[in-house]
Design a protein that fits this description.
By secondary structure, this protein is an alpha/beta fold. Helices cover 38% and strands 20% of the residues. Helix 4 (69-76) links the parallel strand 2 (62-67) and strand 3. Helix 7 runs antiparallel to helix 8 (206-222).
Length: 241
């Protein structure tokens, strides 16, 4: 079994505790449905990838998916409605009711330009749903530039006359710890496969270990209170003042 085959198999089980990133994906469908309830009017999805939220938006609203040309065509093989740079949006001021920016901001070399552009194109009282990772490995390299705490996001929003109206902090300490451990474990296995390293023989024990770590962290997290100490991601809703 080669590297690409393993990645394809993992993608099919991402909502099950056998997946190393189960804690990142297990609430994905519910999260998307919750986001969709906030969307109406003219909606811009920046970095839309496969446009997973589009089917959840009512037909009377107008969805526009935007992505960067090289990222869409050469990395993810997707087709947005518009190709553009998130830091220089090709739209008139105050032309959108809602903007989505989900797991995109960390991939921009000048993220403040993007926030300024969102503030410009949003209608007064318009909203932006922004989601970013926090304790999470480097991904889509070399286009992974920064991480923010919630306080950093608040400061960034205020600078461009946006206020946070809702906050979602995802990942109790044990959940985030399990997520990072399992990603590290899987990355090590994938490296062994690519290098044809003799240690690959130990790979047979990794899937049950991932399952044990995920279920153990989940059970013990049920017994712990909400804790903002080490989340793996943040999601905020911004309103244009």
């Amino acid at each position: 079994m080669n590297y690409r085959t393993i990645k394809r198999l993992l993608a099919k089980i991402r909502h099950f505790p056998l997946h190393p990133q189960w804690f990142a994906y297990r609430g994905e469908s519910q999260n998307h449905r919750a986001i969709a309830t906030h969307l109406s009017g003219i909606i811009l999805d920046i970095g839309c990838a496969n446009q997973s939220l589009r089917p959840l938006i009512a037909a009377e609203h107008h969805y526009i998916g935007l992505d960067y040309y090289d990222t869409a065509l050469h990395w993810y093989h997707t087709r947005p409605q518009i190709f553009a740079d998130a830091q220089y949006l090709p739209f008139a001021a105050e032309s959108f009711d809602n903007v989505l920016l989900l797991d995109v901001l960390e991939h921009l070399p000048q993220p403040e330009l993007c926030i300024a552009e969102i503030a410009r194109i949003l209608k007064p009282r318009g909203h932006c749903v922004l989601q970013v990772p926090f304790l999470y490995p480097i991904h889509d390299n070399p286009l992974d530039f920064q991480r923010w705490t919630l306080y950093g996001l608040q400061q960034l929003a205020q600078k461009y006359s946006l206020r946070i109206t809702a906050t979602k902090i995802t990942g109790k300490p044990l959940e985030t710890g399990a997520l990072l451990f399992n990603i590290a474990l899987t990355k090590t296995l994938l490296n062994w496969i690519k290098q044809r390293h003799p240690a690959i023989i130990f790979g047979i024990g990794i899937p049950p270990l991932i399952l044990l770590v995920n279920l153990g962290a989940w059970c013990f997290s049920l017994l712990s209170i909400a804790d903002e100490f080490m989340p793996h991601s943040y999601q905020i809703i911004l309103e244009k003042i």
